[in-house]
Design a protein that fits this description.
This protein is mainly beta. The protein has three helices and 42 strands. The structure holds beta-D-fructofuranose (FRU).
Length: about 600
Amino acid sequence: MTRTGINAILALTALLAPATAAAELEVNHLGVTNTLVRVKADSTYLILPVQESIDDARINVLVDGKIADTFYVRMAKSKTDYEVPFDLTPYKGKEIVLDIVTPQGRSSVREAKEDVCWKGITLADTFDTSDREKKYRPLYHHTPLYGWMNDPNGMFYKDGVWHLYYQYNPYGSKWQNMTWGHSTSDDLINWHHEDEAIRPDGLGAIFSGSCVVDTAGTAGYGRDAVVALYTSAATNQMQSLAYSLDNGKTFTKLSSNPVITLESEARDPNMFWNEETKEWNLALAHALDREMLFFTSPDLKHWTLQSSFGKGLGAQGGVWECPDLFPIKMADTGETKWILICNINPDGPFGGSGVQYFIGDWDGKTFTADKDSDGKINTKWLDYGKDNYALVSWSGAPDGRRTVIGWMSNWQYAADVPTTQYRSANTLPREIGIFRAPDGNLYASSAPSPELLSLRGKTVASGKGNIGKAGKSFKLPTTNDGACEITAEIDARKGGNVSFTLSNALGEKVTMIYDTAAHTMSFDRRNSGVTSFSENFPALTVAPTRENNGKITLRIFIDRSSIELFGNDGQFVMTNLVFPNQPYSQLSVKADGGTARLENLKVYSLSLK
Ligand code: FRU
């Protein structure tokens, strides 16, 4: 055969070679815990197989022998639970090496080579993010496309768009590789998934923080630049700055980061412009000291420590995290009070995570909490369910609104809930207010955001009248897996308890009881469906209803795996996850030990986009 003939055959073989020919992806075992994967980055993704029960492997991405990225993946050993994509586009056209150190020592390289991940690792131009968790993934709450999510953070509102960032692991459905995921919405209900906004770097993972729109350009990046402060978390925790000139899509990190360092663990910086003092103010969680620190700055880069608040106050049995500080004008008196949010974990009201707050005054440097009528600064909770944590507010919300959102889970079991493609949703958005309760004290309310009214569809059941022991039953919608809003007004001055039970044909149920003598609402999810994944999940939570007249109004939102109960316009709130094996199909309302008058009970189906 002539040389041209050989070349022609070689060219033909090359053409016929599969896309993942050895030259494009080469796996090289170096020892029982170390493997090099050489990749020609022509495809969009390197698909990595994950086994949830395996410990993380450390992956260094080498470009020209230098470490360009480091991340952690539970590389599958005996079975693949799901796959995650590693984005190759930043390395397009280059040859890169993944230096992978797996944690489990095998007895021999031969055994290590059998790990299923080495056969499953592939190149691809697409990654399937279509929803595979239709049983529990909520329909009108924000969830990540795939992977793990915890705290909402860095939220700001600009030009009609609500920006939501969140603690995100793009490489698995358990906590790791903290990155700021990003979603946007123009109605707080329908969310659009954006690209990851801030990724880990040499200073560490990107923990929670906040964003502001720097309207006057005080930081030097021009007017209306979006400036983020977040915690760089590695061996230590420090605060770093990044700015965005494209409305929060991409961020540039300050080369001189960090901007705040301390000698002890501090995180989750939350800043705002103080119009009275013409300075930036910042609250920072001094986590292990169980207090919040306050700083001021003229330019978002240079911060001066001014004061601290919280030592020995409120719940102290866990770390203090994710602060927020904002003014609220009281509806009745017009007086302005400040709310300091101090999320705490553990030692929440029913174990694990909880949203604690203090009401008081802020003079630009110091927070002073009000004493209650008993002369004490009492512990106050924003939510009396188990599943609202790391709640913070949007910066710059329109019309003077103080709109907040929480992470709808609890550190006690967030990584064990029965979903895998994604883990965790956010709560519904809520509006904060302050009210004076019959005990003479001030409390914060959190009512459903007005946008939620737009979800109301058909009234599928309604009722009014006196309720006794026999009670009344109402059908829940059959559409959208029973997703609905229930409203009711109850006048129970004639005493007794009024119970609301959601149930399905399998006998799974959630019972909510208004105890008119104790002025409490309880929420029992012990028989709600799948509960065995954590001993901390089956629970009975109890909220004070903060009324003294036997009258309450309720709005209850159900969305596949969550129930949010708002009483008296958010004066008491309970957010609880549930995992029924079938959607709840019925609501029954009964009064025990008296009669109660029911008004305006309505079950609305929801019109979802
Ligand atoms: C709260 C928290 C924050 C931290 C983040 C890390 O849930 O512990 O304090 O910034 O999660 O993901």
